[in-house]
Design goal:
nucleotide-binding, 6 helices, 224 residues, alpha/beta, Methionyl-trna Synthetase, domain 2, 3-stranded antiparallel β-sheet, 40% helix, ATP binding, protein biosynthesis, Rossmann fold, cytoplasm
């Protein structure tokens, strides 16, 4: 009897062309898996799209002197053409700027909010002292507090791979004008993962078809 298989592929940022590392990371492996599942008779839906929100988009748009939408339109076309040229078998390759995507995300967020799973918390955010502009993650660079790499970003260090917060960086500076940012209290919304940990843990415990390393990795995330 055939099964239904969803291949949910990582969404590349529409902030530039994809290179061979991206293709080998998210492109080819997911395509090989989906083709195999189709070959053995399963009903496969392979989906992805371009991520057109966030600081990677706004940083690159400022660098190229265009709006974020213009940048997303430009590189969505480049990425789609490249993936089609490689013959990757997506059933749906969409964008995070479609009306449908907006509607689905809003529905999910409001559902979580109404059920108490989204909670406001105060964190330290970076602000430009000269302009008052908010400087989220990739607008800040500095030295990684873990490995000492001097070009770490405010969201992660590409040298050691650890996720970071702008306030963690040693000698942080703004990528816009090189000034030292001021850190102030800001309010953000967070998913209350601890409230869901029990249910998620039980669900993971029933995953007899998962590879042991993937299952252990997922369980460790809950334990942390």
């Amino acid at each position: 009897m055939s099964s239904r298989v969803l291949t949910a592929v990582a969404w590349p940022y529409a902030n530039g062309p994809r290179h061979i590392g991206h293709v080998s990371g998210f492109g080819v492996p997911s395509d090989v898996f989906s083709r195999y599942q189709r070959m053995i008779g399963n009903d496969v839906l392979m989906v992805s799209g371009t991520d057109e929100h966030g600081t990677p988009i706004s940083v690159q748009a400022e660098r190229e002197g265009m709006t974020t939408r213009q940048l997303a339109d430009k590189y969505n076309r480049v990425i789609v053409d490249d993936l089609q040229g490689l013959g990757l078998s997506y059933d749906l390759f969409t964008r995070t700027t479609t009306r449908n995507h907006y509607a689905v995300v809003q529905e999910l967020f409001l559902g979580l909010w109404k059920n108490g799973y989204v909670v406001p918390k105060t964190t330290m955010g970076a602000v430009s002292p000269s302009t008052g502009r908010t400087l989220p993650d990739r607008y800040i660079e500095g030295t990684c507090p873990i490995c000492g790499y001097d070009s770490a970003r405010g969201d992660q260090c590409d040298n050691c791979g650890n996720q970071l917060d702008p306030a963690d960086l040693v000698n942080p500076v703004s990528r816009i004008n090189g000034e030292t940012p001021k850190f102030v209290e800001t309010e953000h919304f967070f998913l209350d993962l601890p409230a869901l940990a029990g249910s998620l843990g039980k669900w993971l415990g029933d995953r007899t078809d998962w590879r042991p390393n993937v299952l252990k990795f997922s369980q460790n995330l809950l334990a942390d």
